[in-house]
Write a structure and sequence with these properties.
Blueprint (H helix, E strand, L loop, with lengths): L7 H4 L15 H7 L11 E9 L4 E8 L6 E7 L13 H11 L2 E6 L10 H15 L1 H4 L1 E11 L1 H16 L6 E5 L22 H12 L25 E7 L5 H13 L4 E6 L13 H21 L1
Parallel strand pairs: 3-4, 3-5, 5-6, 6-7, 7-8
Antiparallel strand pairs: 1-2, 2-4
Helix pairs in contact: 4-6
């Protein structure tokens, strides 16, 4: 199989990645480790956990800046982890910065993980959390006409699927979607999805993640587009989009294609590709490319909020 060159400064840090491949054998250990320590948070944001669906254990964490008055825009976030790992705590640091900086309310959802809960369970959890935020907008101090959604990796895949589901059900108006290295295509047929030596998220891990999420649907032609957004034939009527991806990420080709198809369907779309950057490049926060990756997202978010007024 072919390879793609990494940025030299990231290649030198490759040994810091604690796992090369995720599978059923090491998944319990990785879940227990929580993929590292969580950063220390400021006191500028009040965080409150609320139960959305007690039967299924769906919880959201509401992040509100101290001193924010009135109804504010909302960013609804879905954490990453290949559909098999992660927690809404992974969004704490992001909202610790975004909420006071941009005057927004953040809502993070704790959806059920696969393989214990395959599709459509996790997506329905994300929808339930979003609908709860919309239905309780007055109590939460959210402007229901200024809601955007975002997600990283598998969270980006769920975010794209959530935008499609919200469009189709017609209950929840969304204004924008920020797709950060989204996991969109279960078929793994693009050149980048077949690359060897991928850092952070290998093609073997990718196959395991999709198999876990899709269950018996994996490998068939019957996978719904709300399970893998790349399969959607109609992308019209979706909210403004931002797609960002590293040039050394296995999702590179499917993400570029999805962004192009969004734009072709009349959806205002911004695409950013970072040569030599691997999946999850933002994890290398001290490097210039990671800082630029995050700054470009925030610039787009700021412009979206200005557009909404």
């Amino acid at each position: 199989m072919a390879t793609v060159p990494l940025l030299e400064e990231i290649e030198a840090l490759g040994e810091m990645v604690p796992f090369a491949v995720i599978n059923a054998d090491n998944l319990p250990e990785l879940r227990e480790s929580r993929l590292g320590d969580l950063p220390e948070l400021s006191e500028a944001v009040v965080r409150t956990d609320r139960v959305v669906d007690e039967a299924n254990g769906v919880v959201v964490r509401v992040h509100r800046p101290v001193g924010l008055e009135g109804a504010a825009p909302c960013m609804y976030s879905i954490h990453g982890g290949g559909y098999i790992l992660g927690s809404y705590e992974m969004d704490d640091a992001k909202f610790d910065r975004w909420c006071p900086t941009y005057g927004i309310v953040g809502v993070s959802v704790e959806y059920r993980l696969s393989p214990e809960t395959p599709y459509p369970g996790p997506l329905e959890d994300c929808y339930a959390g979003l609908k709860w935020a919309y239905d309780n907008a007055d109590e939460l101090g959210i402007d229901p006409d200024k809601i955007g959604i975002t997600g990283v990796s598998a969270g980006g895949g769920l975010c794209a699927a959530l935008a499609l589901l919200a469009r189709d059900r017609g209950e929840l108006p969304l204004q924008f979607q920020l797709l950060d290295c989204p996991m969109l295509d279960d078929r793994q047929i693009t050149p980048s999805s077949q690359l060897d030596d991928l850092l952070i998220w290998s093609r073997e891990s990718n196959a395991f993640g999709w198999k876990s999420y899709l269950g018996d649907l994996y490998g068939s032609d019957d996978v719904p587009y709300t399970a893998a957004a790349a399969r959607a034939e109609d992308l019209s009527g979706l909210p403004d989009a931002y797609v960002c991806i590293g040039g050394a990420d296995g999702f590179r080709d499917e993400d570029i294609t999805y962004a192009m198809r969004l734009y072709g369907a009349g959806v205002p779309t911004e695409l950013h590709v970072y040569p030599g950057a691997p999946h999850g490049v933002a994890l290398f926060a001290h490097l210039e490319v990671a800082q630029r990756y995050s700054a470009d997202q925030e610039d787009w978010l700021r412009r979206q909020l200005e557009r909404l007024g």
